[in-house]
Amino acid sequence: MKVAAFVVLSLIVSAQVWGYDADSQCVVCHSDKARLKALGAESMYLDPAQVDLEVNMPGATCVDCHLGEGKEKDKEAAHRGMLRPFVVGVGPKVKGEALSRQTAGATKALLPRSSDMEALIPEGDPAKLAAAGAKAATGLHWQDRDPKTFAFSPDVARKTCGRCHEQEVKDYANSEMGLNKHQRAFRSWSEKLPGPQNCGMWFGQNYDNLKKQTAVPYSEAQNDASNRACNMCHAGCNDCHYKPHAGTGSHRFGRPDTTSCYGGGRGTICHAGPMDRRRGAGYFRGDYSFPPNLPQEAHFKAGVTCTDCHKPTNHKFGHLGSEQVRSSCKTCHAEIVKAVEASPHGKVDCAACHVTVVGAYQYTFWGPGVTFGTETPYGKHKEYYGTRDLPTIIKNADGRWIGVKPYPMAVMNQTMELAPTGLLFREIPKRQIPGNTAIGEPSSFEAVRGARDVNDAYIGVGTRGGLPSGNKAILWVQMDKMSHALGKARGCGTCHDSAVQVGKSAWNYFEKTDVKKAFKGSYTVLADKDGLRFTDQTWEKPEPAGNRKLEDFAPFTLLPMNAWDVKGIDFSLPYDKKQTDAARKELDAFLAQIANRKDAEGARLRAVAYHNLDLAKSLLKQR
């Protein structure tokens, strides 16, 4: 009797939760497989009951998410004002611009085609792409993006997600991530703070300012192409919560997972860009790493998700210099964290020891190049992909030792100058940033960030002439913190056997609009009491493609070998050979003492000993 009652109750609840509107013309048309097949749109067939299960939002209708006119029987009238995902077309006439899936011939259901980082980007129909003036579809964006700028549209979010999630949309649309406050605060290459940086200046609502800084002709069309390219990385509601990449349905929604944070199978967008493509110490790695398949993060392999550590509060996430994120290590490693905090390494960041080989950019230069098929003064020549065997350890603004990857950068053809800056963490002086009211942003908003809120740093090397163009180039050393790709710790000797830090980089460069064939090279980074130096630089002779010049993408081949060297900053590590030898001898003796302990307790003692020998000895005495 109880079982029967439970079944009846389940059916009643199911009818309430999954009761789609059978009278909706959206349902009437898209659930009619025969009709859709006759119209040549069989891929648009949807089982309404299955869609309700995938969406998992009781009471939500098609029109709530897609807009349009759900009561209209006429196709054109029903689809008027409807929102749709769009692809990014690139070709002779289409310069990284939005194309409808119908125009691109990419109407198949949104399900992963493979398991790689571009699993969801549709191939499209070559004939239809060509007719639209495009050669390829290079990206895919959801309907809460503005098709003109590719930016997250708060206006669309309010009309759709906001119908049910009003407060959440309000929180996100005003958050640092929703407004992309920090990146948009970078307005001038020559500004000391927050300084020039790898991702460049913000191009949106900044054209007139950038044009004044540029010594060569610079058009709005060029600026707009760069703006679209930058906006591709910055997320809207659907980027996080819409999950067709899971392979469990084209209407699957839910909480963000690690793949969501990495672009959801739509290329190196979202955090895949800054983590794996730029820093080279990404969480996901695998197919996302440059070069591919660098050793994966230990926590990733254990199934830990991004939001296990980066816990959102009102759509605000702990990151960069966040104490909240660092404290999350205690959730699983409480004893080790306690041991470190009570040891001489109490001011050493976990990642400083546990991140070793890093990949991605080993140089980056902003100069004449191609963005979305558009020739522009601000092409980003970043494809110097390679490896650095060890990060360089520096002190952050709180005096905590952190690992960074120093590498040479420059921006070409500047009218303004940046003097040498010394080591600076990328704080953002309080400023008002213009918004885009056309997509529902405020007319302006405040951006500010303290030096203790960020672990990314840079050193402005200065402004140089002497290049064939006769124009100025601003040079700096990029020093992003290495936070992920955690694994087995670097050897103690890499820090304690010398006051001099040594890192070795090897890279390979290929971008078909820059060079006829790939070329490779290497260098060594030395950091000591006298400063930072890039030595032992070698490279194969590059062969520029077309009208490209060496200055545009490889200025290091034209400037002096010491162009990026920095003097007057002490990067040495504390070094005392006598003390190090004694500590190593004491540790080795303790490890030998417990060598026969093969049980869990022995493993625990060894782990504690590497982080705090005195505590490990104390624990052993208590046994």
Structure description:
The protein is α+β, with helices and mostly antiparallel strands and 623 residues long. The strands form 4 sheets. Strands 4, 5, 7, 8, 9, 12 and 13 form a 7-stranded mixed beta sheet that branches. Strands 6-14-15-16-17 form a 5-stranded antiparallel beta sheet, with no helix packed on it. A 3-stranded antiparallel beta sheet has the order 2-1-3. Strand 4 and strand 5 form a beta hairpin. Helix 25 packs antiparallel against helix 26 (613-622). The protein is globular, with a radius of gyration of 27 Å. The termini are far apart.
The proportion of residues in beta strands is 15-25%
Distance between the termini: 57 Å
- Mean of the pLDDT scores? 93
Low-confidence stretches: 1-19
Task: Figure out the total of helices.
Answer: 26
Helical proportion?
A: 25-40%
For the largest beta-sheet, the strand count, sense and barrel status come to: 7 strands, mixed
User: What integer value in Å does the Rg equal?
Assistant: 27 Å
User: How many beta strands in the DSSP annotation?
Assistant: 17
Give the tags.
623 residues; alpha+beta; seven-stranded mixed β-sheet; five-stranded antiparallel β-sheet; globular; disordered N terminus
Structure at a glance:
The chain is of the alpha+beta class. Helix content is 30%, strand content 19%.
Secondary structure blueprint with pairings:
Layout: H1 2-17, H2 25-30, H3 33-38, H4 48-55, H5 62-66, H6 75-78, E1 86-90, E2 95-100, H7 101-104, H8 126-131, E3 136-141, H9 154-159, H10 166-173, H11 181-184, H12 207-213, H13 220-231, H14 237-241, H15 258-261, H16 272-279, H17 298-301, H18 306-309, H19 323-327, H20 330-341, H21 350-354, E4 364-371, E5 374-381, E6 384-388, E7 392-395, E8 401-414, E9 422-425, E10 428-434, E11 444-449, E12 457-464, E13 472-481, H22 493-496, E14 501-509, E15 519-528, E16 531-539, H23 550-553, E17 566-567, H24 577-593, H25 600-611, H26 613-622
